[in-house]
Amino acid sequence: MQHLLRREGIELPASTIHRIFLRHQLVREGDRQAIALRRFERAQPNQLWQMDFKGPKGWDQPVGPLSVLDDHSRYALALENTGSTQARGVQAVLERVFRESGVPEEMLMDHGTPWFNTQGRMGWSQFTVWLMDQDVSLRFSGYQHPQTQGKVERFHRSLTAALLRRGTPEDSERQNWLNDFRQEYNCVRPHEALQMKTPDQVWHQSPRRFRESQSTWQYPAGSEVKEVDRNGQFRLHRQRHYITKALAGREVGLLEVEERVLVYYRRTLICELDPLQPSPIMADPPALPAGRV
User: Fold this and answer.
1) Does the pLDDT of residue 267 top 70, yes or no?
2) Using CA atoms in the order 15, 185, 75, 123, what is the torsion angle rounded to 10 degrees?
């Protein structure tokens, strides 16, 4: 607030501003947070985006709005009242964002719908495959560990606080309300973690452009390429291995490392295999270096 007042030519000590807030009961105990001793963030915009649905608190719907946040700049690329967690609506939002803002290198999500299929053995869904077809490397937070997505969680706390102060908008005005909040968050409110800059002063568009159709992927030399059949399987060393039906008809790259086989789809590691066992093992080493042709 002191920084915003200074923009308007008003100089007040922080202690005076704090007393004014106290007088008008604008300071809540939940707003008093210890300063983080160490911050974790990507070095540049668009290296990693975080995506999650806000909880229903203050929104009066089964699911809150969908948020997409840049890890480095805290820039909110999307804040959408989708009304549900269905993949079709989420994909439509991301396709629009990708067209307007470019495509990130990686995306971080939790183990929720629609980006994680809790009914499937590997968890992949058609939606996550669509993301991988844009050559986005996917990362998932730990189970019951929301701190992994700390920036989008903090963004949602700010959103909830605004809803509690200003009131839940009428149904017909919900998206307009979200648009106004996103504009304020991105362009008006300075962030201490950004040296009192606003997110839009730090973020810039990604040079990686959205592709209308899937491109051919060339796996590195030394990889064995297998096509996944309609049952989500492929054969290796006379053993059939099931990974996921979401990749049916697509080619995966197999890379042998010691006694394990790493299975990649484009940039993303899908699983590890023991050639002699039919069940895959989830794993998350660095992405396999590869290129698009």
Assistant:
1) yes
2) 110
According to the model, what pLDDT value does residue 292 have?
40
Do residues 261 and 223 make contact, with C-beta atoms less than 8 angstroms apart? no
Which residue spans within the chain are E strands per DSSP? 48-53, 66-70, 76-80, 106-109, 137-140, 217-218, 224-227, 233-236, 239-242, 251-257, 260-265, 268-273, 291-292
- If asked whether residues 152 and 249 sit together in one domain, one would say no
3-class DSSP state of 12: coil
Place of tokens 């990604």: 206
Whether residues 99 and 174 share a domain: the answer is yes
Residue 208 lies in a domain: no
Give yes or no: residues 191 and 221 share one domain: no
Whether pLDDT at 44 is above 70: yes
pTM: 0.78
> Is residue 105 predicted with pLDDT exceeding 60?
yes
Domain boundary among 202, 234, 266: 202
Query: Do the beta carbons of residue 148 and residue 142 sit within 8 Å?
Result: yes
Number of folded domains in the chain? 3
Burial of 203 (0-12, 13-18, 19+ CB in 10 A): buried
The mean per-residue pLDDT over the stretch 11-24 comes to: 58
Closest by Cα among 199, 207, 178, 175 to 98: 207
Residue 63 lies inside a defined structural domain of this protein: yes
* Average pLDDT of span 116-144: 80
* Between 38 and 134, residue with greater pLDDT: 134
278 shares a domain with 167: no
Two tokens at 53? Answer: 């649905």
For 114, the domain range is: 38-202
Q: Cα angle vertex 287, ends 240, 47, to 5°?
A: 140
Residues 191 and 104 in one domain: yes
Backbone angles phi, psi at 119, to 5 degrees: -85, -15
CA distance 129 to 119: 16
Say whether both 178 and 98 belong to one domain. yes
